[in-house]
Design a protein that fits this description.
Layout lengths: L1 H43 L7 H6 L3 H11 L3 H16 L2 H4 L15 E2 L7 H4 L8 H4 L2 E2 L15 H8 L4 E5 L20 E4 L9 E4 L18 E6 L7 H4 L12 E4 L13 E3 L10 H6 L3 E7 L8 H8 L5 E5 L12 H8 L2 E7 L10 H4 L9 E5 L4 H4 L6 E2 L6 H12 L2 H11 L2 E3 L5 H10 L7 E2 L2 H5 L3
Parallel strand pairs: 1-8, 3-4, 3-5, 5-6, 6-7, 9-10, 9-11, 11-12, 12-13
Antiparallel strand pairs: 2-15, 8-14
Helix pairs in contact: 11-15
Length: 471
């Protein structure tokens, strides 16, 4: 009898425990599934088709959460923001599936920041984002042709200085005006960097050189162990290629770091980054009225009239089919010489298209000619020309790429077609109005932060590769 009672008790307890375990598993699964589904819905409201697990691994997921909060106002506002996002970005797979290696999944371009982000070292620091530096700059860890003692490089000298809390000394070797350099009290430097101009000495840690200002008879220079030579140039290689292509120049194998307009540089220096900032519906202008009030077609504002890229010849051909007004040194009218935004607003008001043609056809050479058009309130569509795949960097419907047309005539006829349809043109104005150009980050701060972060990997560059691979 006792055995029978014990057996029934154990069986009863077994079923009780099993029931509790099953209920617990069911509740846990239900809660997790609903939470995951709700998260997917929140992201799908923004037109983001990313896997949630990938997003959670993104160090910039807060940027996407901020984007979500920007559109969480009302149903109509959410629909408007979602629609503009999908039409302006997410449906273009070639752009949204770019090869950017940044962790952020908000945008796939080194030029565009997410809503709420500010320009900082972390946002513009890229290590070989699009092309390998070995291919673009001819980088090697060691190079027997390099100038001694530059055959092996590293950060050991700078690391020792930082451990002693000594400032890192930057020597701007061939710069012109020492008054342009920041002093020790410059806010971003935190007394970790000192800048000077003068002859190279043993105390210098980083030698910053601009090739455009370098005398062709500069000859060889002496360098000390542990010094890093930084190639700093925003001009296109077409303007200094002959000097660096000379096999006899001692500068060919001098450089260990690069800072240029190319995202493949060690320290990326864009002219002006952009930020995606959707305009609340109640603050948006009437884009259709803006389109209808445009009375002129194309405008070109330039000071360099004889360029390597021959843009002036292309524009002359365009003039046979569409009216193009020219301002600056290349035209009969001079205005907005400083190209300040208030002046550009007044100048661009009657025009539909701005010819943002680069003066050199070099890879990744994208200058303020394009970025300035994204300033708030200009309400004009840029037409671009350069040796770039612009759709790789910039969102669709914010520019017109001349390379997509067989001739200047075909491009001109396309512009005339857009000009005749106020509705289609108004849509372009609305999309471009969601991107705002920002001031370029302070270059001195960027260099100081990049070097003292000890994240860089100095190498020895055959800098002539930069020229032959770019233009």
């Amino acid at each position: 009898m006792a055995i029978y009672i014990l057996r029934r008790y154990l069986v009863s307890r077994f079923f009780q425990i099993s029931a509790i375990v099953l209920v617990t598993i069911f509740l846990f699964y239900t809660f997790s599934h609903r939470k995951h589904h709700a998260s997917q819905l929140r992201f799908s409201e923004l037109g983001l088709d990313f896997n949630l697990g990938i997003l959670n691994r993104s160090r910039n997921i807060n940027s996407i959460i901020r984007l979500q909060s920007l559109t969480r106002h009302s149903d109509s506002q959410r629909r408007d923001s979602t629609r503009s996002w999908r039409h302006g970005l997410n449906t273009n797979l070639q752009w949204s599936n770019g090869t950017n290696l940044k962790s952020s999944k908000c945008f796939h371009s080194p030029y565009i920041l997410c809503p709420g982000e500010t320009v900082s070292f972390d946002n513009i620091f890229f290590e070989g984002v699009y092309e390998r530096k070995e291919a673009v700059f001819g980088a090697n860890q060691t190079n027997q042709e390099a100038v001694k003692p530059n055959r092996t490089v590293g950060l050991w000298k700078i690391r020792q200085k930082l451990q002693r809390r000594d400032p890192v000394v930057f020597n701007f070797y061939n710069y012109f005006d020492e008054h342009q350099l920041p002093d020790r009290n410059f806010p971003c430097l935190r007394n970790s960097c000192v800048y000077r101009i003068g002859d190279i000495t043993e105390v210098d840690d980083v030698i910053v050189v601009r090739i455009v200002g370098l005398n062709e008879n500069a000859g060889s220079i002496k360098r000390w162990p542990g010094q890093l030579f930084l190639f700093d140039e925003l001009e296109a290689p077409a303007y200094y290629g002959n000097f660096l292509n000379d096999d006899n120049t001692s500068w060919r194998y001098q450089f260990n770091l690069t800072t240029t307009y190319s995202p493949s540089s060690d320290i990326f220096h864009p002219y002006n980054p952009l930020r995606f900032e959707p305009i609340p519906p109640e603050e948006r202008p009437n884009y259709y009225e803006l389109a209808k009030n445009k009375t002129k077609n194309a405008v070109w504002l330039a000071s360099n009239c004889h360029t390597v890229g021959r843009r002036e010849s292309y524009i002359q051909e365009m003039k046979k089919y569409i009216d193009v007004d020219v301002f600056g040194d290349c035209g009969n009218q001079t205005t907005c010489l400083g190209q300040r935004v208030p002046c550009l607003k007044k100048l661009f008001q009657p025009y539909r298209f701005y010819l943002a043609f680069e003066n050199s056809m070099c890879q990744d050479y994208i200058t303020e000619k394009l970025f300035k058009v994204y300033a708030p309130g200009l309400h004009i569509i840029p037409v671009v020309q350069g040796k770039n795949n612009y759709s790789r960097y910039f969102p669709p419907k914010t520019f017109i790429d001349s390379s997509q047309f067989l001739s200047a005539k075909e491009l001109s006829l396309h512009l005339l077609k857009l000009a005749s349809d106020a509705g289609v043109y108004a849509e372009l104005l609305q999309v471009i109005d969601e991107y705002h150009s920002l001031d370029s980050p302070d270059h001195y701060c960027t260099m100081c932060n990049a070097v003292t972060s000890l994240k860089l990997k100095p190498k020895i560059y055959d800098i002539s590769k930069w020229i032959t691979n770019q233009c």
